[in-house]
Amino acid sequence: MSGTERILLDEAAISAAVKRVGAQISADYAARAKPPVIIGVLKGSFVFLADLIRTLTVPCEIDFLTAKSYGQNSHSSGVVQIVKDIDADITGRDVIITEDILESANTLRSVCEILRSRSPASLKVCVFLDKNVKREAPFEADYKCFDIGDEFVVGYGLDYAEKYRYLPYLAAIAAE
Ligand code: IMP
Ligand code: MG
């Protein structure tokens, strides 16, 4: 794809929003007996997760999973499988799932269902971006940095065909 790039969110805007969400999480999880387990959905969440945990003023544990959605490339289907699972036993633990972007919510709905079956004490969802216009059924994130419109975005961990994840800002790309 030859694309044009337009910066939507620069590093300063991203940093401020991540700090805001980090402060909310820090307040909500203060004084818990055990630290929350923050689970990053790979690969897209790794930059967000790395920045977010460094804004927290409460301890946390980190784990990762990879979910594969069987559907067309640009659109996830309702059939989601965990192809790389977390190492942690989350039974009785407070869990926060972090994801780069919530679109149809098919991915996170399925991941939540799978993790809920393991009886965590609580399960919350934290997303960097919410592309609400594409939702197929209601699904709300507990924490989010930004709402965005219906455009394809890259950078800050998000990719197009594995490209652009390294960009420190968020950009929209459009086919030329
Ligand atoms: P959902 O299951 O439809 O909510 O899809 C969420 C997943 O689709 C994300 O984890 C991303 O991998 C991908 N995705 C959705 N929109 C975008 C985008 O604008 N840029 C990059 N990836 C996206
Ligand atoms: Mg992803």
What features would you describe in this structure?
The protein is α/β, with parallel strands linked by helices and 176 residues long. The protein is built from 3 helices and 9 strands; from the N terminus they run E-H-E-H-E-E-E-H-E-E-E-E. The strands form 2 sheets. A 6-stranded mixed β-sheet has the order 4-3-2-5-6-7. Strands 1-9-8 form a 3-stranded antiparallel β-sheet. Helix 1 (11-28) packs across helix 2. The site of magnesium ion has 2 residues, from loops.
Keywords:
176 residues; alpha/beta; globular; binds inosinic acid
Topology:
Layout (H helix, E strand, L loop, with lengths): L2 E7 L1 H18 L8 E6 L3 H8 L7 E9 L10 E5 L9 E9 L3 H11 L5 E9 L12 E5 L5 E2 L15 E6 L1
Parallel strand pairs: 2-3, 2-5, 5-6, 6-7
Antiparallel strand pairs: 1-9, 3-4, 8-9
Helix pairs in contact: 1-2
Bound molecules: inosinic acid and magnesium ion.
Summed up:
By secondary structure, the chain is an alpha/beta fold. The protein has one domain: Rossmann fold (3-Layer(aba) Sandwich), CATH 3.40.50.2020. It contains 3 helices and 9 strands, in the order βαβαβββαββββ.
